[in-house]
Specification:
alpha+beta, Immunoglobulin-like, four-stranded antiparallel beta sheet, three-stranded antiparallel beta sheet, 6 helices, 7 strands, about 20% strand, elongated, membrane, transmembrane helix, transmembrane
Length: about 230
């Protein structure tokens, strides 16, 4: 209790306490640990709250002049941390993933495809943009109107990748049954450039009548898009 009281009454202690979340953040980035980075952010926000309470205490003790360094340093750190996470958010999802040797992976194609590049009812993924941004091609012949879409899963944990975003972004509406060449782009957000991991990419089709089925699936080595 004595230490908690000192935290709020001695003006410089809440400021020095920012060293703890900064240290945890540095360790988290070194170890490529999303969990440690989350802990650092929690500690950072807790200390902001502590600074606010300490400010109120200083004012009540008629030491309002002591809130100036607290306000300036806290404001600077809030802006600094916001800029870091706005322009280069850390995501180490794929950093420690193991690519299994007993799984067969297709090679990502690095060019746009034409109809003649596909076999019968084929399905292929290409990477011709930034890492994490992919495009699929299919010439699967549907018997009903509906839409194609992609499901992606990390190969070892079966985690669903970017579920809502991929569902919306990869959707291709089929309203002409004579069409037989379809392509659309989708993005995997989990992970960062250079941190590659295995993924199972599934092509699904949902009919206008509500039936839903998997058309095809293939395994690829992917990486997340750094937004």
């Amino acid at each position: 209790m004595k230490y908690i009281k000192k935290y709020f009454t001695i003006w410089w202690i809440p400021i020095v306490s920012y060293c703890l979340p900064i240290l945890v953040y540095i360790i988290g980035t070194r170890l490529k640990s999303n969990d440690l980075i989350d802990v650092a952010l929690i500690l950072f926000y807790i200390n902001i709250l502590g600074n606010i309470i300490s400010t109120i205490v200083q004012i009540s003790n008629k030491k309002w002049f002591l809130i100036i360094p607290q306000f300036l340093i806290t404001s600077f750190l809030i802006i600094y941390i916001s800029v870091i996470f706005s322009f280069s958010p850390a995501d180490y999802y794929g950093a420690k993933k193991v690519i299994p040797n007993n799984v067969e992976f297709e090679k990502l194609i690095e060019k746009e495809l034409k109809e003649t590049d596909l076999g019968l009812n084929d399905f292929k993924i290409v990477s011709v943009s930034q890492p994490g941004i992919y495009r699929f091609y299919t010439n699967y012949k549907t018997k009903e109107k509906g839409y194609f879409y992609i499901k992606a899963f990390e190969i070892t944990s079966n985690d669903r990748l970017s579920e809502a975003r991929i569902l919306q972004r990869s959707k291709i509406i089929v309203d002409n049954l004579d069409s037989n060449f379809f392509t659309q782009e989708f993005t995997i957000y989990e992970g960062s450039w250079g941190d590659k991991y295995g993924a199972r990419i599934e092509l699904w089709f949902k009919t206008d009548s509500g039936n839903e089925f998997k058309v095809n699936q293939k395994n690829y080595i992917v990486e997340g898009w750094m937004r």
